[in-house]
Design brief:
With 568 residues, the chain is an alpha/beta fold. It has 25 helices and nine strands. Helix 11 runs antiparallel to helix 15. This is CGG triplet repeat-binding protein 1.
């Protein structure tokens, strides 16, 4: 009897071995070998099966190599044998299912590694149409993340190509490993048409910021910042003449980056230091002056976060006293007014804290609870809260205004001057603690809006912002600034013959205009002053307040790239 021939399958070879043998063609996903082009499992034990799959019409069609000679036989004679040109890249709305899935995870800021969870992996394979065998996260990251990134860059490039001007916002921070991270945002200028709601009415104009790059810097200086900004703007094809503003904080290397590197390139731009930074300093002045209030806020947050059940007991305590059962508002780092809101709440509940936390002391040895009781019974704390209630409301209102992504370049100078004048007047009759805070705040604000101030925390674009007030018809009637002064302060009007002519016509006819919100006003005048309206809307689109990134390439990086980690 003849011996049975040995099996030609290899039981020792693994999918990883085949993936290395056919690098770039197949990839391993768990215990399966997946064709990277067809996204289907293939028998990895037989090399002949793999080679047979590579010459199938389906596989070659996926690669764009399907030829006329491989079509079904036809009765007509073939004269020429030619290859069909590769199909053009699909648009973003016709992505393959797996690519769509990776894109969805990226846009939702969900780490792609979550796909490896067995329950989620099985659910996606069973319920997402045409996804087939879903690869592991490492495969998705290596094969699809770059495609998603490129599509995102293409989308931003098209958007910035359609807008007239762009403001560049740069901010440096650190990640959880204390590495320097440079965030570069682009804010397109407001359009002449403007968005409308379902009733076809114009809605409030808000600035939209797009985080186009998040750079990891080994060292932060004017050279590395300049290089990163130029590289980011070139990546999304923002033309240098389209840049209308370079918005930064007050760091010395930011000033140097503008003067030494970027100013000769961005010829139509001004260097603007964000009002958000000076307003955060204003908030710190009040927090440092009223130290016991700050200690009370921190102690209460610690006592509630350390014992979540204490929150429920405090709600019940307030409800039994016939009060609204609400918890103290948390202080948020990106909302400067939240500290004043929290202080206002604590003033109303100071006696409630003393009673409630004395009861908590009987069952808890927490130092935070003891500190709350001590501060709640302190006369200094009560006095500071009363002073804040008198003066803090005016400051809180101004801070809250600049926490929103609204157009403020036409009013920021007047707003900060009015706040400074109010503080100077109140300081003359205020108590010592309040007077010190009011004077310090007024000094900082006056330095910020002063022309060519020698102080560090100043506004290099003070003349530009003063000229922007003329674009508010309600202010322009009183200011009466001439066209030459405006043109010298606004680079977009330099050598702009049509814009200058329309500016002169606008100034000559100020009396006939009905004042309204500046952005809405200039959108209505777009037909009459087309070039001037474009310039004015670019000036009004310079972000001086808080902005949030609407779409972020750094989010794609944080999700898809292992070397980026979460920010502090």
């Amino acid at each position: 009897m003849m011996p049975k021939p040995a099996s030609k399958t290899s039981v020792r070879i693994t999918p990883e071995d085949r993936a290395r043998e056919f690098s770039g063609v197949f990839h391993a996903s768990g215990k399966q070998l997946i064709c990277s082009s067809c996204n289907i499992p293939v028998d990895h034990t037989r090399k002949a099966s793999l080679e047979k799959h590579l010459i199938t019409a389906k596989h070659r069609r996926r690669l764009g190599l399907y030829t006329i000679s491989e079509e079904k036989p036809s009765k007509k004679p073939r004269v020429v044998k030619t290859e069909v040109a590769p199909q053009p890249q699909r648009s973003s709305n016709r992505l393959e299912p797996v690519l769509k899935l990776v894109q969805a995870f990226a846009e939702a800021n969900i780490p792609i590694g979550k796909i490896d969870h067995p329950a989620l992996h099985a659910f996606l394979e069973q319920n997402v149409k045409k996804v087939g065998v879903l690869p592991e996260a490492s495969v998705l990251r290596n094969m699809y993340s770059q495609k998603v990134y490129e599509l995102h860059v293409k989308e931003l490039t098209e958007k910035f190509g359609r807008c007239h001007n762009v403001a560049i916002v740069v901010d440096e921070t650190t990640d959880e490993e204390d590495r320097y991270m440079l965030n570069i945002l682009a804010v397109p200028s407001l359009s002449v048409e403007g968005p409308r709601n379902s009733a076809n009415k114009s809605i409030e104009p808000l600035l939209e910021a797009y985080l186009i790059e998040c750079c990891l810097l080994e060292i932060t200086n004017f050279k590395t910042v300049s290089e990163a900004v130029l590289r980011a703007t070139q990546m999304v094809n923002i033309e240098p003449t389209k840049v209308s503003a370079f918005v930064t904080d007050h760091a010395a290397y930011m000033y140097k980056a503008w003067e030494r590197s970027l100013k000769p390139i961005f010829l139509n731009a001004v260097h603007v230091t964000s009002a958000a930074h000076i307003l955060s300093i204003v908030g710190e002045i009040w927090q440092n002056a009223f130290d016991e209030v700050s200690q009370l806020i921190v102690a209460i947050e610690k006592s509630f976060s350390a014992c979540p059940a204490r929150k429920a007991r405090f709600r019940n305590f307030l409800q039994e006293k016939g009060m609204k059962p609400t918890l103290p508002p948390a202080v948020q780092p990106n909302r400067w007014s939240s500290w004043f809101e929290s202080a206002s709440y604590h003033r109303l509940h100071l006696q409630d804290y003393a009673e409630f936390f004395q009861g908590e002391q009987q069952t808890s040895g927490s130092s935070a609870v003891e500190e709350v009781v001590e501060l709640a019974q302190s006369g200094n704390t009560e006095e500071q809260l009363d002073v804040l209630d008198r003066y803090g409301g005016h400051v809180r209102q101004m801070l809250a205004k600049y926490e929103l992504a609204r157009s403020t370049s036409a009013c920021v100078v007047d707003d900060l001057r009015e706040l400074a004048f109010w503080a100077q007047g109140e300081a003359e009759v205020a108590c010592t603690v309040a007077a010190d805070a009011l004077i310090a705040m007024a000094t900082r604000l006056c330095q910020y809006v002063e022309f060519e101030s020698p102080c560090r925390f100043t506004q290099p674009a003070a003349r530009f912002l003063a000229a922007c007030r003329m674009f508010d018809p309600a202010k322009a009637v009183e200011l009466l600034m001439d066209s030459g002064e405006i043109c010298n302060a606004v680079p977009l009007l330099e050598d702009n013959i049509a814009g200058i002519a329309q500016l002169i016509a606008y100034l000559d006819n100020l009396g006939e205009f009905v004042p309204s919100e500046p952005v809405m006003f200039w959108r209505k005048l777009a037909d009459r002053f087309p070039e001037l309206s474009r310039v004015v809307l670019a000036c009004l689109s310079v972000p001086l307040s808080s902005v949030d990134a609407k779409k972020s390439i750094s989010m794609y990086s944080n999700v898809l790239m292992s070397e980026f980690h979460g920010h502090k």
